Amino acid sequence: MTHLRFNAFVMNTGSHVHHGQWRHPAARQADFNDVRLWTDLAKRLEGGLFDAIFFADVVGLYGPADGSYEVHAREGLQIPSNDPAVLLSALAVNTEHLGLAFTSNVLQQHPFQFARQMSTLDHISNGRVAWNIVTGTLEGAARNFNLDNLPPHDDRYDWAREYVDVVYKLWEGSWDPDALVRDKQRGIFADAAKIHKINHRGPRYRVDGPHLPSPSPQRTPVLYQAGASAAGKAFAAEHAEAIFIIAPTPQVAAEGIRETRELAVRAGRRADDIKFYQGFAFVVGSTEEEARRKESEIESYISLDGYQTHRSYGARPDGTFYPPDTPLSAIDTNGSIGLLDWLRRSVTDREPVIADVGRLIASTARIVGTPEQIADQLVVWQRAGIDGVNMFNWHIPGSYEDFIDHVMPVLRERGLAQREYVPGTLRRKLFGTDLINDRHPAAAYRGAFTNADIR
Ligand SMILES: Cc1cc2nc3c(=O)[nH]c(=O)nc-3n(C[C@H](O)[C@H](O)[C@H](O)COP(=O)(O)O)c2cc1C
């Protein structure tokens, strides 16, 4: 049996997923503006042989665009928040092996600039960056980027297809492998004949190129995706190398993984070109009793308001609230269809209602127990087909340290966690190669452009 992969799922903000926990006496996430909180965490994760630190991000507030943000501000619910890409350059120089993943929405940056930023980070980190491709669910974010409304759900994935097309052209096709010469004797820095314009012309973007950075170690960063709707799964099956799921049971995970792997094969890829990571939040105790005691302490800090506002299903488009007994089936959303579906499938004995949202999300994918019990559970999930764990936190510091110090040794003993890092880029660690494989659509642009446009 192969070992599992481990990502630490965080956000450059005070309250990411588990709202209210920042108030815990040991929690320091309220100090997220202090870069040392993150460099300390990154070093600790690297000491624990985590594969990557993965930053979520959004570029607007949750809920209706004109709605109140009183709860957001009170809870520190992803406001204030800082740009993860800037932070990653600090983490890159403080680590050697840890993968550095961040989320960037296709609406937030022009693809030419985004491709350049990514290549720069890939150079700085010696090939350890990953991009979580998101299409966004927030009306408020759309309004921050020149739009009147968030485009319809499936149209956002069409937008993403053009966006990735532009960045793949820049990363893979613009520079030949030997275009950077740097020959002091001959006085040649780079060979123009081997640097190509891409001349992209599409519905949203016009990009001539060439790409300004020379090829970085991975060229295309490792590609993460987490869409769960039909359109999201189809996009992920074509493009993602790592997919993030939060399935309510191993059976539901197995179903979704099988379906997406089949879609990938239909798109010309191999089933194992994609790694699946299930999200978990762990509560670890040396005895079951201790774990339960820690869980009740965590419960005492939970803010249900925070969870409900985060998921936005409590509010109508005009900002007024649904009554708490409204069935989830009565809610229409242009936001995350995948998440709404997940919520409906999580309550099986009755019709889930709005009042369930906070409670359900607070207890999502939570595993409580001794290190051995946690390892037993992870084996069940691994048999269902997951390749890795995307670990949420309750407290920074605290949650990752508990897992590294107590659970990792048991996992390592059972062959479920790596004993050392494979040297080299993040993609080499995960898949054995620095560059994206030939079956991926990005690879089609290698050697695709000529220098006919050089004048
Ligand atoms: C583990 C995980 C992490 C995610 N991180 C982000 C994020 O950082 N920013 C974001 O806008 N969406 C994030 N999403 C949302 C998805 O990328 C996706 O946009 C959302 O599920 C809506 O797409 P869908 O309707 O196809 O499911 C995340 C989802 C999951 C499961």
How many distinct folded domains? 1
Could you tell me the number of beta strands?
Answer: 13
In percent, how much strand structure appears in the residues? Answer: 5-15%
Helix and strand run: EHEHHEHEHHEEEEEHEHEHHHHEHEHH
What's the total helix number? 15
The strands making up the biggest β-sheet line up spatially as 1-2-3-4-9-10-11-13
CATH class: Alpha Beta
User: CATH topology, which one?
Assistant: TIM Barrel
The CATH superfamily label reads Luciferase-like domain
Shape estimate: globular
The secondary structure category is alpha/beta
Low-pLDDT residue intervals, each spanning 5 or more residues: none
**Main beta-sheet strand count, sense and barrel state:** 8 strands, parallel, barrel
Percent range for helical residues? 25-40%
> What's the alpha carbon Rg, rounded to whole Å?
22 Å
Bound molecules: flavin mononucleotide
Distance between the termini: 56 Å
The averaged pLDDT comes out at: 94
CATH architecture: Alpha-Beta Barrel
Question: Secondary-structure blueprint of this entry?
Answer:
Blueprint: E1 5-11, H1 35-47, E2 52-56, H2 70-75, H3 84-93, E3 99-105, H4 111-124, E4 129-134, H5 139-144, H6 153-173, E5 180-183, E6 188-190, E7 200-201, E8 206-207, E9 222-225, H7 230-239, E10 242-245, H8 250-266, E11 275-284, H9 288-301, H10 304-311, H11 337-346, H12 356-362, E12 366-369, H13 371-384, E13 388-391, H14 399-413, H15 426-431
Bound molecules: flavin mononucleotide.
Flavin mononucleotide (FMN) binds next to strand 3, helix 7 and helix 11.
